[in-house]
Amino acid sequence: MLRGGTRLASRFSPTLIMRRSLARKPQNGQEKPPEAPEHDHEGHSHSSHSHSLFTPHSHGPGASTDTAEKLMAAFRGAGDRGSQITLLGLFANIGLLVIKGTAGWMTHSAALIADAGHSLSDLLGDGVTLVCWRLSRKPPSETYPFGFAKFETLGTTTVSLFLIGGALGVGFHSYHLLLTSLTETAATLPSGALQELLTNITTAAPVHDHAHAHGHSHAHGVDPNALWFAAIGVLSKEWLYRITRKVADQENSPVLLANAIHHRSDAYSSIVAFFAILGTWWVPGLPLDPIGGLLVALVILRQGVGLLWGAWGDLTDAGVPLSTRKDVKRALEPLLATSASPSSSPSLLAIRHVRGRRAGSLIFVDLTAEVPKTLTVHDATILEEEITQTLKTARKEVTEVRVKFTTVD
């Protein structure tokens, strides 16, 4: 049995593999709080004991009140920044949904109604973001020994699907309105090549009959006052994007970043809606409003597919990009024996085979360290700790480092 000062004798395998699971620290960098004492469930009925996303244990008739108070505390700033910024976006989206939806109906603007539909997907996205953010910050458990960080990836995936679904809905709605407008335009044109072209297009294009009925209610008379509501959407959503993106970067959170992009895509859609309404007002004969709705759909679809592609890599344990692996090796260069740094270790000869995978905002790293044959188990343990602490200091998203030691002559 190897002891602290025992040399690695030749009868042992030339490769010493040491793997060490390090306790994960919460995102704020503080030490993990002590385990809660054993809780006696005897004597508690199901009606008096409840578990909540925002409070792990709550008892008695005031359980729901405690949850609501924690929600409001998060909104006031007593909670974490991720919950606070998500709740702010949620309440803002409720207001924008009502304002833009009502204004779009009253002013007969298809682009503004499409924009309101995007605000609805934003509202749902805020709810998913809040739930997944809170879950991902829970400490590891026996069931989830590697933590709950992948709930962030799950939230990012869900938000991206909301975006894609919303884009398809907005696109089909605007497509039907565009065909209705082209059909009516063709009917008013004199006989000629243009009328024949429009007639052939509207006849050949697939469209349901009930879509025409709905289209008649919005295809005419776009009120220019809709411009004011589109402008409000642009300014408010761009502001939400900036403040959410700032928190997402500080927390290195993909689900908060996805929600920020959701806000930005809504700002883009409001810009397109603004110019579509303006163009329809200036040139009433052109179907710019439904065309604007189609452009909004394309913008949303692009954002949704981009988010889904990134989340898919995390869900399937794709490796971190080459740039991240190079950063890891660069961070460990001062520890190499060949380095002139005061922190260099004569025992660390080389770092090879660096790999990493993401789980939400966290990165799990494993690598191979080449060391002399004469290195003791005790010294190898100390070196492993130095490697781990160096990486965690250089990259705060690194939560666990597994080191494989290989001896060389």
From TrEMBL:
Keywords in alphabetical order: Membrane, Transmembrane, Transmembrane helix, Transport
Any one GO CC term of the record: membrane
Cation efflux protein cytoplasmic domain ranges (all copies): 348-401
Membrane-traversing stretches: 267-284, 290-312
Subcellular location: Membrane
Gene3D superfamilies xref list: Cation efflux protein transmembrane domain, Cation efflux protein, cytoplasmic domain
GO BP annotations listed: inorganic ion homeostasis; intracellular monoatomic cation homeostasis
UniProt feature, compositional bias: Basic and acidic residues: 32-45
GO molecular function ontology, one term from the record: monoatomic cation transmembrane transporter activity
InterPro entries hit by this protein: Cation_efflux, Cation_efflux_CTD, Cation_efflux_CTD_sf, Cation_efflux_TM, Cation_efflux_TMD_sf, CDF_Transporter
Residue ranges of every copy of the Cation efflux protein transmembrane domain listed in the record: 87-311
Coiled-coil segments: none
Low complexity compositional bias, start-end: 50-59
Superkingdom of this protein's organism: Eukaryota
This protein's record includes keyword Transmembrane: yes
UniProt key word ATP-binding: no
Region (Disordered): 15-65
Membrane topology summary: Multi-pass membrane protein
Main location: membrane
NCBIfam families: CDF
Protein name: Mitochondrial iron ion transporter
Organism of provenance: Mycena albidolilacea
